[in-house]
Specification:
The chain contains 15 helices and eleven strands. By secondary structure, the chain is an alpha/beta fold. The longest helix is centred in the first third of the chain and has 31 residues. The radius of gyration is 29 Å and the shape is flat. 26% of the residues are buried.
């Protein structure tokens, strides 16, 4: 069986991918420059910088994304998306330093062409390899013989999936069960019963068993499952336990390894992945670029603030960031110097429900401050917070500590993402929205987060700022 050569096959597939990457790179380079540059040292400097970083990035990211692990039971669309993710990140990371070589900067057309052709070529190669493996399995080769432990709805659903999908290359030897472990399911047709848990060792000795799938409820059969693991471990047989062990409404699950200790991750906020990496790269690039371009505006605003009122240019306020981390949020000062001292006398005029203070025609706001707030220019120094990693361009607005201590449990979930300059609240009316609706919008953002959602919010922010919607 090909199983015996799993590591060698994974190495072969990786080598094929690297060959494709190199061939496509030189093909796109030739089409762009009409010169043959197969000698790496003869390439222009920016390409000598780009190619090694791209290859190193591919080796590292393909390992992290587990691109060369078994894909028997995953759809090809998922694999294609993984390839596109890896190519995209590699080009972004490899292209960044090459852009600083100003004599001969990388061509944007070259990068776009490379992205398209690399993605298409690698997806095509992986599709061919996948179809070849399916063909091998349908012919009766490269199959895995599995034993089911447990007789319940989860086991029945799994068996049905295997029977419908011969291309998985999985053959069910049969099932064993514990007394009172069937959970109302009397058979796993067409699987045949092979005995009870006490027969596991005998079955493995007498039959060919590649993998054991355990579907017993962990809470009720913990000691039995432990014994199964010990037997299989001693006999060198793989054990697989499905991760859908608990019932939860919003949480998703993955498997992580901490110093050889496998753990199940349950999480509701976006988990670190390629999209969050791209989000952070966009934050760094856009905030850095924005700070450079807006430097003259910063200088003009600073002069206006100093000329019209006493006090510092920037207002620094402690805010609560990612998972409760405190940081100093920066704004252009729009109020009088002793604004925080005067706040206690104005609490009775609060126009917002919940643990938030908002007030129209706040007497502490200066004349220049009203203009800065209306145009949202006062928020621009937060680009520094974004560049430093304390904030993001898009995310729930950072609250002050006195507000957080009054949050309900469900409201604290808004702290599970890095706070942002703009968010759904910002583009849906800001101060005109009730507190509960505000919290609901933040939870919606976290639950539905994607790069595309961030781009849509950024696109809506500009007209919202131009209209001054909800600004005070």
């Amino acid at each position: 069986m090909l199983k015996e050569y799993k590591k060698q096959l994974a190495a072969l597939f990786r080598l094929l991918d690297i060959l494709i990457i190199l061939l496509v790179f030189y093909a796109v380079y030739y089409l762009r420059t009409e010169t043959v540059g197969l000698n790496f040292l003869a390439l222009p400097t920016q390409y000598q910088v780009f190619l090694p970083i791209y290859l190193i990035g591919w080796v590292y990211l393909s390992t992290q994304i587990r691109l060369y692990t078994s894909k028997r039971m995953t759809g090809f669309l998922s694999e294609a998306l993984d390839i596109i993710k890896t190519v995209t990140i590699c080009i972004i990371v490899a292209g960044a330093p090459a852009f600083f070589i100003r004599e001969h900067p990388l061509s944007r057309i070259f990068l776009v062409s490379l992205w398209v052709m690399e993605s298409a070529s690698l997806i095509s190669l992986h599709y061919i390899l996948r179809e070849w493996l399916k063909y091998i399995r349908r012919r009766g080769y490269n199959f895995r013989q599995i034993l089911i432990v447990g007789r319940n709805e989860r086991a029945a659903k799994f068996v049905g999936k295997i029977e419908e999908s011969p291309e998985f290359g999985l053959r069910i030897l049969g099932f064993i069960d514990a007394p009172n472990g069937n959970n109302g399911v009397h058979s796993l047709s067409p699987c045949r019963p092979l005995g009870g848990l006490k027969d596991l060792e005998r079955i493995i000795r007498e039959q060919i068993v590649d993998e054991v799938f355990v579907f017993l409820p962990i809470k009720s059969f913990y000691s039995e499952i432990q014994e199964i693991l010990e037997i299989c471990e001693s006999m060198g047989v793989e054990v697989k336990i499905p991760t859908d062990l608990f019932s939860y409404k919003l949480a998703k699950s993955t498997i992580s390894v901490y110093d050889n200790i496998p753990v199940i991750d349950l999480y509701t906020s976006p988990k670190m992945n390629w999209q969050l990496l791209v989000k952070r790269l966009v934050d760094i690039f856009c905030s850095g670029f924005g700070l450079i371009i807006l430097a003259p505006l910063f200088a003009a605003v600073a002069l206006l603030i100093k000329a019209t009122s006493r006090g510092p240019i920037f207002f620094r306020q402690e805010r609560v960031g990612y998972n409760g981390r405190p940081f100093n949020c920066l704004k252009f000062r729009t109020m009088v110097k002793n604004a925080e001292e005067l706040k206690k006398d104005l609490l009775k005029f609060n126009e917002m429900e919940g643990p938030v203070f908002k007030m129209k025609n706040d007497p502490r706001v200066t004349r220049v401050g009203r203009i800065l707030r209306k145009t949202s220019i006062d928020e621009l120094p937060q680009l520094i917070n974004v560049f430093m990693g304390e904030m993001s361009l898009v995310g729930p607005r950072p609250p002050v500590p006195s507000e957080v201590v009054q949050y309900d449990l469900k409201d604290r979930r808004r702290l599970s993402m890095r706070p942002g300059i703009t968010c759904l609240w910002q583009v849906n009316g800001r101060n005109g929205i009730r507190f509960e609706k505000w919290m609901e919008l933040d939870r919606k953002y976290i639950d539905q987060w994607s790069l595309w959602l961030d781009f849509k919010i950024l696109a809506k922010t500009i007209p919202s700022v131009m209209r001054g919607s909800g600004a005070a």
